[in-house]
Write a sequence for this structure.
C-alpha cells in the first residue's frame, strides 16, 4: 500500500535540486527514502510495493534537496505502467542526480540499469544495498574497484540497520559524476541510433538513449514523441526503425538487452566473488514448503487460520469487547453524556452528539471501538505477511485459479492488498501488464474483495456464529469471484497476460517496520474513515429527523425484507454502506450483538454487504484509474448483483432448511 | 513422421564445369538415395544420369574417381562413399534442425544449401544439439557420425523445452521462443544463461543467478535448454 494521499510535492519543491532514487524492484529504495527523508512510505518484501512516486525533503549537513522515490524497474524500456512512471521521471523531470539502489547479490542486474543511466548521461551515485544478504550467500563485491572503473561513488548499505546511510548522504553532496560505462550495440544499431538522434528534440536524457528506446520499439514513448515532435519527424523515426530491424533481422530490443547483459557480466566477473553460501536452513525450508504443490496448501490454511485467530478472535472479539464495553461503554460514553448534558442544554445538539444517531455514540463508537481494533490487528498480521515474502509465493500457488478468472497469478498481489484497502489495491493493479488484466482485477476488487475493516467486522460476526456460517460465507465469496472473473474474461476482448513474477527471498519480518507500517496505516484509516463515518451519521440523523428514514425503509422493504429476508432496520446499514462498506458492516455487527438478527439473517446480510458497492474512496480511485464510464458501469452491475446474490442465498437457506 | 519421399530438389543450377564440387556432391547424394531406394549397392548408370538430368553424369563422376562402373552398373568407390555419407548426414541433420527446432515447413531448399556450407565441427554440434537423431523428418536414416558413437548410451535429446526437463536440474538456455522474451531478458535470462529449475507445480519456479522467478507452463514451453553436465542434484 502506497502513501495514502500524502505524496503531494513539497510546495518549495520546485526550487530544490531534485534527486531520483532508481533501481530494480524490491531492492530497498523505499527504505532508503524513508531513512534519508524521515518520511515513511510503505516498505514490503515483494516487487511492486511502490507504484507511484513519492517525494520528500532531505537535509544533509544544511543542504536541502528534494528526493523522489520511484517504482522499481528491470529495464528503462518500460513493460508495465509502474515502470513507465520511472522512465518518464528521467525523461522529463531532469533530476540533477540519480541515486541508484542496487541489490548487492544481483550485481549483474544492477549494472544493466547503471549502463542505461550512463547512456542517458545522468550523474549517478550507486549504492549496493542488502550487503548482509549478499554476505550470507558468499558474495563479495569489490566496491573500490567498481568505483574506479565506473568513475562514480559506489557505496554499500544495509538499509534496515541504517548501515552506510550517512556515507550515502555525504556521497550525494559530492560533485555529481556520470558513470563511465558504455555499451557497444554493433554497427547496425549504432548507425541507426545516431541517425535517429539527429531528429530528436532535447530532453532530460541523452538523445542516444532516447534513440535506442525508439529502436527497441518502445510503445510507451509514443506519447512523449507526439508531444515533442511534429508528425513528419515521427514518421521519419518510424521509417528508420523499420529499416534497422530489416537490416538486423531480429528484435532490436533483444539485441540491446543482450549487449547490456554481456557488458554487465564482464564487469561482474571482474568485481564480484562468490564463495559457497551459508544456507539459512529454516528460511530455505519455509520458502520451499510454501510453494510446494502438496505442502503449500496446508501452509496456506495455517496462514489463514492464524489470521482468523488473530484478527477474528483476538481483534474482533477480545479487543472490540474491551474497547466497546469497557472504554466506550463504561468510561467515554457516560463521561461525554454527563459533560454534554451539563454544558450544552440544547436537546437537538445533545441528540446530534450522543443520541441514537449521535456523532459520538454512533460514528466514533463504530469507527474507534469496533473497526479500529479490527483493522489494527489486521494491519499487523498483514504487515508480517508482506514483509516475510509470502505474498508472491501465494501467487505461485494460486496462478491456476487466477487463470480461470482470466488473470495470471500476479493478480494475487492487488487482490490480497484489497483485503487491506480497496483504494490502494486498485492503484496496485498498475503492476499488471495489460489494460484488460487491470480492468478485470479492478472489477473483482470492487465486486467481492472485502477490505480489512469490513473483513474484520465480518470475521468477528462469523466467529460468533458457527464454523458452517464461515464456510458458507467463504465459499459464496470465492464462487462470486471465480464466476465474476470467468465471465469478465469472456466478455472482455484480448488474451490474459502470461504469468511472470519475481519471487523475493523469504525474510524475517522486522518488528520495527511492522509497527511503523501498522501505525501509519491506522493513522491513515482514522483520517480517511472517521470523517466519512461522521458524514454517514449526520445523513442518518437528518433523514431520521425529517422522518425520511422511515419512508426509505418502507420503500426498501420489498427488497430488504421481502427478497433478502432481513429486518427492516438493516436498510440503515446499507445506506451508510454506500459511504463505506465497513461502516455498513459495523452497523450489522451492532445489530447482531443486540440480538436483532437470526444467524441466517446475519449470514445473508454479510454476503450482501460483501458484494455491495465499493466505498466512496475506492469509487473515486476507480474513476481516477479506469475512467468515469467504467466506474459507473461497475456500480451498475454490482449493486443489483449484490441483492440478487443475497436473495439467492436467503432462498437457498430457507429452501434447504440449512441451520446456520 | 512423414514417410513420403520428398521431391529431389538439390539439382545443380549451374553448368557442371563451373561448380564441379557441388555437382559431385549432388551426384553422390543422388546415388546414395538411389541405392537406398533400390536396396542394392549398385544401380544402372542410366538411372543416375536421369536423376541428375545430365546424360554424362556417370562418366563425369567416374573420371573424378568417386564412383566405379563395373558390369554396366555404378557403385561408390571408398572415398566416394565416405563423402556421400557426410553430405547425406548434413542434409538430414539440417532438415531435423529446421523442422524440429526452428519449426519451419518449407525447409528443403535451405537444407540443400546448408549441407554444403557447414564444417564437420558445426555438423557435430548440431547433431549433439538435436540429441543424435536416428532419422530425418521423412523417416530416412541419418548416417551416424563420430559424435553419435561417443554418445550411444544417451537416448534423451540434449535440447528440450523447460517443461520437459527435470526438477532440480541445472540448465543452459539454448534458445527462447516466447512472447515473454523481453521480460525474461530484463531479469537477465537470455540465450546462454544458466538456470536452475526449482519446481514445476503448481507453477514453474526457476532461479537465475540470485533471482528467483515464477512463470506459467506456457512460458516454460518456450524456453529451450540443455542440461549442464554433472550438475544435476
Amino acid at each position: 500500500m502506497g502513501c495514502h494521499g500524502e505524496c503531494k510535492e513539497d510546495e518549495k519543491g520546485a526550487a530544490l535540486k531534485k534527486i531520483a532514487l532508481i533501481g530494480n524492484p524490491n531492492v530497498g529504495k523505499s527504505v532508503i527514502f524513508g531513512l534519508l527523508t524521515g518520511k515513511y512510505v510503505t516498505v514490503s518484501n515483494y516487487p511492486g510495493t511502490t507504484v507511484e512516486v513519492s517525494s520528500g525533503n532531505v537535509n544533509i549537513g544544511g543542504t536541502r534537496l528534494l528526493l523522489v522515490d520511484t517504482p522499481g524497474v528491470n529495464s528503462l524500456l518500460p513493460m508495465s505502467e509502474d515502470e513507465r512512471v520511472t522512465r518518464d521521471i528521467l525523461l522529463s523531470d531532469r533530476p540533477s542526480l540519480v541515486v541508484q539502489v542496487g541489490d548487492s547479490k544481483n550485481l549483474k542486474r544492477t549494472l544493466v540499469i547503471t549502463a542505461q543511466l550512463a547512456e542517458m548521461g545522468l550523474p549517478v551515485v550507486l549504492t549496493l544495498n542488502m550487503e548482509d544478504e549478499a554476505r550470507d550467500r558468499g558474495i563479495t563485491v569489490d566496491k573500490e574497484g567498481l568505483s574506479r572503473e565506473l568513475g562514480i561513488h559506489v557505496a554499500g548499505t544495509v538499509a534496515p540497520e541504517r548501515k552506510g546511510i550517512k556515507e550515502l548522504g555525504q556521497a550525494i553532496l559530492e560533485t555529481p559524476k556520470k558513470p563511465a560505462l558504455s555499451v557497444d550495440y554493433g554497427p547496425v544499431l549504432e548507425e541507426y541510433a545516431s541517425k535517429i538522434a539527429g531528429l530528436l528534440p532535447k530532453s532530460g536524457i541523452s538523445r542516444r538513449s532516447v534513440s535506442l528506446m525508439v529502436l527497441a520499439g518502445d510503445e510507451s514513448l509514443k506519447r512523449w514523441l507526439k508531444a515533442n515532435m511534429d508528425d513528419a519527424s515521427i514518421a521519419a523515426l518510424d521509417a528508420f526503425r523499420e529499416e534497422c530491424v530489416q537490416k538486423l533481422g531480429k528484435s532490436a530490443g533483444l539485441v540491446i538487452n543482450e549487449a547490456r547483459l554481456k557488458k554487465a557480466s564482464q564487469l561482474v566477473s571482474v568485481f564480484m566473488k562468490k564463495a559457497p553460501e551459508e544456507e539459512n536452513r529454516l528460511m530455505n525450508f519455509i520458502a520451499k514448503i510454501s510453494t510446494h504443490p502438496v505442502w503449500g496448501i496446508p501452509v496456506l490454511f495455517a496462514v489463514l487460520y492464524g489470521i482468523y485467530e488473530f484478527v477474528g478472535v483476538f481483534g474482533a472479539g477480545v479487543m472490540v469487547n474491551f474497547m466497546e464495553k469497557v472504554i466506550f461503554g463504561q468510561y467515554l460514553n457516560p463521561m461525554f453524556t454527563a459533560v454534554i448534558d451539563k454544558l450544552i442544554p440544547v436537546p437537538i445538539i445533545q441528540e446530534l452528539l450522543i443520541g441514537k444517531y449521535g456523532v459520538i455514540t454512533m460514528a466514533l463508537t463504530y469507527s474507534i471501538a469496533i473497526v479500529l481494533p479490527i483493522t489494527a490487528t489486521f494491519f499487523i498480521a498483514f504487515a508480517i505477511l508482506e514483509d516475510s515474502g509470502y505474498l508472491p509465493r501465494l501467487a505461485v500457488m494460486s496462478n491456476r485459479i487466477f487463470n480461470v478468472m482470466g488473470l495470471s497469478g500476479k493478480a494475487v498481489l492487488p487482490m490480497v492488498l484489497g483485503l487491506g484497502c480497496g483504494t490502494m489495491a486498485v492503484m496496485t493493479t498498475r503492476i499488471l501488464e495489460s489494460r484488460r488484466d487491470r480492468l478485470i482485477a479492478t472489477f473483482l476488487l470492487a465486486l467481492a474483495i472485502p477490505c480489512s475493516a469490513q473483513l474484520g467486522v465480518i470475521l468477528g460476526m462469523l466467529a460468533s456464529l458457527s464454523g458452517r456460517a464461515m464456510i458458507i460465507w467463504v465459499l459464496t465469496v470465492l464462487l462470486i469471484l471465480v464466476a465474476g472473473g470467468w465471465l469478465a474474461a469472456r466478455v472482455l476482448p484480448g488474451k490474459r497476460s502470461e504469468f511472470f513474477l519475481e519471487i523475493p527471498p523469504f525474510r524475517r519480518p522486522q518488528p520495527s517496520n511492522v509497527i511503523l507500517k501498522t501505525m501509519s496505516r491506522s493513522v491513515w484509516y482514522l483520517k480517511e474513515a472517521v470523517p466519512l463515518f461522521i458524514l454517514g451519521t449526520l445523513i442518518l440523523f437528518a433523514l431520521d429527523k425529517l422522518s425520511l428514514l422511515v419512508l426509505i425503509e418502507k420503500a426498501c422493504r420489498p427488497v430488504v425484507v421481502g427478497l433478502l429476508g432481513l429486518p427492516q432496520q438493516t436498510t440503515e446499514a446499507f445506506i451508510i454502506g454506500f459511504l463505506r462498506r465497513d461502516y455498513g458492516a459495523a452497523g450489522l455487527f451492532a445489530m447482531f450483538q443486540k440480538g436483532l438478527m437470526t444467524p441466517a439473517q446475519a449470514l445473508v446480510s454479510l454476503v450482501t454487504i460483501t458484494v455491495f458497492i465499493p466505498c466512496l474512496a475506492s469509487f473515486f480511485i476507480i474513476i481516477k484509474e479506469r475512467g468515469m464510464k467504467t466506474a459507473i458501469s461497475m456500480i451498475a452491475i454490482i449493486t443489483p448483483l449484490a441483492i440478487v446474490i443475497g436473495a439467492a442465498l436467503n432462498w437457498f437457506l430457507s429452501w434447504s432448511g440449512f441451520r446456520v | 513422421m512423414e514417410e513420403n519421399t520428398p521431391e529431389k530438389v538439390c539439382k545443380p543450377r549451374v553448368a557442371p564445369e563451373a561448380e564441379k564440387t557441388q555437382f559431385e556432391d549432388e551426384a553422390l547424394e543422388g546415388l546414395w538415395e538411389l541405392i537406398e531406394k533400390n536396396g542394392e549397392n549398385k544401380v544402372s548408370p542410366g538411372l543416375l544420369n536421369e536423376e541428375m538430368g545430365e546424360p554424362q553424369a556417370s562418366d563425369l563422376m567416374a573420371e573424378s574417381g568417386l564412383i566405379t562402373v563395373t558390369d554396366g552398373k555404378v557403385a561408390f568407390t571408398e572415398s566416394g562413399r565416405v563423402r556421400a555419407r557426410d553430405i547425406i548426414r548434413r542434409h538430414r541433420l539440417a532438415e531435423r534442425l529446421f523442422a524440429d527446432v526452428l519449426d519451419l515447413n518449407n525447409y528443403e531448399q535451405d537444407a540443400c544449401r546448408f549441407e554444403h556450407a557447414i564444417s564437420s565441427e558445426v555438423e557435430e554440434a548440431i547433431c549433439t544439439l538435436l540429441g543424435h537423431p536416428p532419422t530425418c523428418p521423412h523417416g530416412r536414416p541419418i548416417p551416424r557420425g563420430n559424435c553419435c558413437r561417443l554418445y550411444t548410451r544417451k537416448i534423451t535429446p540434449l535440447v528440450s523445452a523447460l517443461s520437459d526437463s527435470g526438477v532440480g536440474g541445472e540448465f543452459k538456455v539454448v534458445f527462447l521462443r516466447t512472447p515473454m522474451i523481453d521480460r525474461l531478458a530484463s531479469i537477465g535470462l537470455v540465450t546462454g544463461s544458466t538456470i536452475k529449475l526449482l519446481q514445476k507445480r503448481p507453477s514453474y519456479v526457476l532461479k537465475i543467478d540470485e533471482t528467483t522467478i515464477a512463470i506459467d507452463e506456457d512460458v516454460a514451453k518456450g524456453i529451450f535448454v540443455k542440461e549442464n553436465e554433472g550438475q544435476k542434484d
